Amino acid sequence: DVKVTQSSRYLVKRTGEKVFLECVQDMDHENMFWYRQDPGLGLRLIYFSYDVKMKEKGDIPEGYSVSREKKERFSLILESASTNQTSMYLCASSLISSNQPQHFGDGTRLSIL
Amino acid sequence: AQTVTQSQPEMSVQEAETVTLSCTYDTSENNYYLFWYKQPPSRQMILVIRQEAYKQQNATENRFSVNFQKAAKSFSLKISDSQLGDTAMYFCAFMTPTGNQFYFGTGTSLTVIP
Fold first, then answer.
1. Which of A5, A56, A102, A109 is the best substitution to test chain B (most B C-beta atoms within 10 A)?
2. A41 bridge partner residues
3. Residue whose C-alpha is closest to residue B86's, from B98, B77, B76, B99
């Protein structure tokens, strides 16, 4: 089974801090994704990556950046955390083949105080 | 851009009954992929069922089946013989032919009542 591991289930940070959310997958997937999930809004794509050192903006990239130095790891960075970034963050990965679904991690509940 | 609409924010069903969750989408693509994901209260999102747009036959996975109407751009999920473990948030998702972009609906929270 595919395993997508997010480093923290719960995280509390302060406004203005630089925050790192880490995601690792163990199935050699090319694609990796970061979403935030908010009630009534579903999942919104922040960034995705289809290869090492490659990244594409999603629907809501403002205030975020990403890093993919190795194929298995995709990091989401909040450069200067703000309270409106309090949310559930989900990481996912998939094969580059067009009919393959995404596999998700458990999520990180991030609170910015 | 693709959009996915789930018009039922919350639904409930009696245990052992059948329930249908609706999903519509908008796209100009001809080939694409559709998915239903389930997110139980423990939060990990798992795949329930998938449908390729070029296949006319509706996908089925045990108690889960879909009604895919390509012309109407409709992709509903039917859960038969509902079980307590089916209580979850259900998301409909659309994937582009390239496989690197997904679009999710806002979700339907399903509660199975004992």
1. A102
2. none
3. B77
Residue among A56, A90, A97 minimizing CB distance to B45? A90
Which of A43, A48, A105 is the closest to B104 by Cβ? A43
Question: Tens of pLDDT along A12-55?
Answer: 999 999 999 999 999 899 999 999 999 888 899 999 999 998 99
Q: Phi and psi for A84 in degrees, rounded to 5?
A: -75, 0
Q: Do B106 and A106 touch (CB under 8 A)?
A: no
CA distance A106 to chain B (A): 5
Q: How confident is the model at residue B68 (pLDDT cuts 50, 70, 90)?
A: very high
Q: Render pLDDT for A91-100 as a digit per residue (tens, 0 to 9).
A: 999 887 667 7
Task: For domain A4-94, give the CATH number.
Answer: 2.60.40.10
Are A58 and A47 a contacting pair, CB within 8 Å? yes
Closest residue to A99, CB basis, from B33, B43, B91: B33
Report all structural domains of chain B as residue ranges with CATH numbers, in order of start. Answer: 3-113 (2.60.40.10)
Q: Provide the residue ranges of all domains of chain A, joining segments of one domain with +.
A: 4-94
pLDDT for A98 equals 61
